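Subgroup meeting minutes
Present: P.N., E.W., G.H.
Scribe: E.W.

1. P.N. recapped why we're keeping a running log of single-chain structure predictions: easier to compare across weeks, and new members can see raw inputs and outputs side by side.
2. G.H. added today's entry (494 aa).
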Amino acid sequence: MVRIFLSIAMFILVSCSSGHEPDALSVAVAQEPPSADLMVGASVSGRNILAGNVYERLLAYSDGKIVPVLASSYTLSDDGRDLSISIREDVLFHDGSRFDVHDAVLSLNRWMDSYAAASRAAGGARFAEEDGRAVIHSDSSLALFPMMLSSSPQCAVMLPSECIEDLQPGEIISSSVPGTGPYRIGRWNEGERIRLEPNDDYRGEKPEIGTIDYFFVKDPSIRRLGLESGQYDFIDMVLSDDIPGLEADSGIRLLEGSETGSIAIVFNKKEGISTDQGFRRAVALAVDREALMRACYGEHGYSIHSDYMEHPWSVDPSLDAYGSMDLAESARYLRESGYSGETVRILVSNLTDLDKIAVALAQSLEEAGIRTRITVLDWAAFLEKRRDESAWDIYVSALSRVMLPLDKLYLSPSSPGGLEDSECLGLIAAVGEAGSMEEARELWEKAQIRLWEYVPAIVPGHYSTVYASSAELLGVDLSDGFHFRNAYIGNGSR
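Output recorded in log:
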């Protein structure tokens, strides 16, 4: 009995110590991916955990450049209407089968069926196999296609053809399938964690970090306490209130990127009071944007401007006529809208204190004479409720940074409460049809100015996600979420 007790005690001590295997990592994340399907069930958490680790793309966006990954090269014709991609010949899926152009073509076409911006840009064209390459010919410009392939929210990851050829359009792959990345999914305990294990047959340089456990920890306080105790090596979505305490801990390193996303107050343009443009303008002019951002982020990690996009698409926010608080003008638009005291229903998730923004929004609106009711749900329930356009008038959400304006959720007519203004849609479509990135940026400026007039959504500010790690964890890549391909555990030198 004594021997058993001592064994149990030693197990508890080892389990609770801050030590870990030198090539293992323990990560606490706020969200569990809804699925492993990064094309149809796309999510920020899924991209952070699986994209680049388990599943790879033909092209990737890195340091401001588009670089080949599973492609060996790509060429775009002078008129921008023909794109040809050569496929690497040394790539194996995790099950040992060889990745080839047939897999690439089926994966690319499934991605296009899932990603409306790419489908629109291609004008109905699809990829086909020609002379051992994946090729697409379009009547419209494909100048933005390489960037779409490298960075779209519906990840253009490569999957085995036999896993996708019989799927119906929009059908989500219910279980994980083999990828080509340096890690494979070793275990997925729903509601608890995903374990990634090394792919010993990976063709390229293998990461120094071997096993990675991503634990799903919704409560930011529990994530922080787990980091401080040594249970976790890295945590995401650090709250502003926790920053001073973490800064004072010599064993912890705070990590902050550039603007990584925006807060969006999105109007329902299909049903209810928010279909009235004057009402939307009244709301925009009633909002105290600084108060909204401070409610969630405190004094850290955000900037105030109403631009829908981040660099390199930024437009001078002073051109937004409804981008700053003006209660007198708000009252005028409210009267002209015919608002007669209806309760405006605000939908929000409790993820990372977003509900605090909804409370600050409701306070601004109540002070302007607009009655409100807030519905706060967990993330999964929020996504489900948002699909029901009869159930809300405004939703509040955080939207991660995207590479193209066409990727903005609320700029699509098919999104919840979708955009229906023909002029706005025409300008956004023109961005996708531009012959070059320079022309696309010029067109986006015109689109942004028109959108500010139409007010499909309010962007009170942009956030910079703050992460925290053990001081011994080095080399974390924060260029697009967080990734550990080049990370290692050490004392500052390899």
